[in-house]
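Morning F.,

Quick status update on the modeling queue. The single chain you submitted on Monday has been processed. Sequence for confirmation:
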Amino acid sequence: MIGIDLIKIDRMKKLIEKYDHKILDKFLSPQEIILVKNHRTAAGFWAAKEAASKALGCGIGAECGFHDITISKTAKGAPVLELSDKVKEQFSIRASALSITHDGDYAIAVVTHEKR
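Structure tokens below.
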């Protein structure tokens, strides 16, 4: 299962300017917020969560919310995606992989999920 998402970085910048950093609480955990260095990083995390939900085939909503998807980083800075136990069980997910890239005005994320 694969999902991809693209977000214009300026969209995230405008959301942060309008709602301050409270907007980050809507889609990020406190641990994820610590990793967000600027609006570019926040946009990448948004794209990653959207891509993860698309790979499940449901999108962000009742079956999988933003807080059911957690992003961390390895010691070398590579992104790592983890799903909540509820989502892993519901969709029979064994493993997930994430890649995030930024190019010009856009942040792009690709997620794969491996079923049990």
